[in-house]
Specification:
By secondary structure, the chain is an all-alpha fold. The protein has one domain (7-78). Helices cover 39% and strands 0% of the residues. The longest helix is centred in the middle third of the chain and has 10 residues, at 41-50. The radius of gyration is 13 Å and the shape is globular.
């Protein structure tokens, strides 16, 4: 994935084949493992949520996981604020 954002230059996915992030099924586990070492997962996930990107692994979440997050929190206007705020238990 070639990301043209200031945070994209720091993304761990810059070092892998972009097609490896747009896979189905169990291959998504490998794509998510790339995100686990990335310093900009919050920015990446926020971008995908706010732009309703439907395919691929972004910010460590699959398209299915992002849809579920949007369904659980439909009232959130800024996903960045949601992701930057620690969860209350």
């Amino acid at each position: 994935m070639t990301v043209k954002f200031s945070w994209g230059e720091k993304a761990a996915c810059q070092l892998v084949d972009p097609d490896s992030l747009f896979v189905e099924g169990s291959a998504q586990h490998h794509a998510k493992s790339i995100c686990s070492t990335c310093p900009v997962t919050t920015e990446c996930l926020t971008y995908a949520l706010e732009n309703r990107i439907e395919h691929g692994v972004w910010g460590g979440m699959t398209d299915r996981e992002r849809r579920a997050l949007r369904r659980r929190r439909p009232h959130i206007s800024s996903r960045g604020k949601l992701l930057d705020t620690p969860r209350k238990k």
